[in-house]
């Protein structure tokens, strides 16, 4: 399981011309699920994301998490994060979880996230999403859990 986190001033997801999720300051999370990922792994990753300190505190250091910064969370499924890219010139998506399983796990993780944090928005699983963002910094981190 892999999450690409971007600290944003604003972000939104548009599907078929309609906004499906939108936040102001906060974290845009692209979430990739691998074949062997589980709900327990996902909970561990979500907990880490919510506690991860990469917002500036009163001393201007990365000391605050998203809640302390008063931000939101925009969670977007992205199977391409699981691609093997070490060989050749075309990504290998073999490691990604099959769509039906991934959608069920993603939805379960969205539900869990909403029980842990109030300001959660999402994209639409497997949709052709247009993601708009203003990266703050830029600050981007790649998180994984074992």
From TrEMBL:
It catalyses: a D-aminoacyl-tRNA + H2O = a tRNA + a D-alpha-amino acid + H(+); glycyl-tRNA(Ala) + H2O = tRNA(Ala) + glycine + H(+). Its EC number is 3.1.1.96, 3.1.1.-. A motif (Gly-cisPro motif, important for rejection of L-amino acids) lies at residues 137-138. Its main location: cytoplasm. Keywords: Cytoplasm, Hydrolase, RNA-binding, tRNA-binding. It is found in: Cytoplasm. InterPro entries: Daa-tRNA_deacyls_DTD, DTD-like_sf. It is an enzyme of class 3 (hydrolase). One of its GO terms (molecular function) is D-aminoacyl-tRNA deacylase activity. An aminoacyl-tRNA editing enzyme that deacylates mischarged D-aminoacyl-tRNAs. Also deacylates mischarged glycyl-tRNA(Ala), protecting cells against glycine mischarging by AlaRS. Acts via tRNA-based rather than protein-based catalysis; rejects L-amino acids rather than detecting D-amino acids in the active site. By recycling D-aminoacyl-tRNA to D-amino acids and free tRNA molecules, this enzyme counteracts the toxicity associated with the formation of D-aminoacyl-tRNA entities in vivo and helps enforce protein L-homochirality. Homodimer. A Gly-cisPro motif from one monomer fits into the active site of the other monomer to allow specific chiral rejection of L-amino acids. PANTHER family: D-AMINOACYL-TRNA DEACYLASE 1 (PTHR10472:SF5), D-TYROSYL-TRNA TYR DEACYLASE (PTHR10472). Belongs to the DTD family. This is D-aminoacyl-tRNA deacylase. It comes from Acinetobacter albensis.
């Amino acid at each position: 399981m892999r999450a690409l986190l971007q600290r944003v001033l604003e972000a939104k997801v548009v599907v078929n011309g309609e906004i499906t999720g939108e936040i102001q300051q906060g974290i845009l999370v692209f979430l990739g699920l691998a074949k062997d990922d589980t709900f327990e792994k996902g909970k561990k990753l979500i907990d880490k994301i919510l506690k991860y300190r990469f917002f500036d505190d009163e001393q201007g250091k990365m000391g605050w998490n998203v809640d302390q910064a008063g931000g939101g969370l925009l969670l977007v499924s992205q199977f391409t994060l699981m691609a093997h890219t070490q060989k050749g010139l075309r990504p290998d998506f073999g490691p990604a979880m099959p769509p039906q399983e991934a959608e069920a796990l993603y939805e379960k993780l969205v539900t869990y996230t909403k029980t842990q944090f109030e300001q959660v928005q999402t994209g639409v699983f497997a949709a052709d999403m247009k993601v708009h963002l203003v990266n703050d910094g830029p600050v981007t981190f790649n998180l994984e859990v074992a």
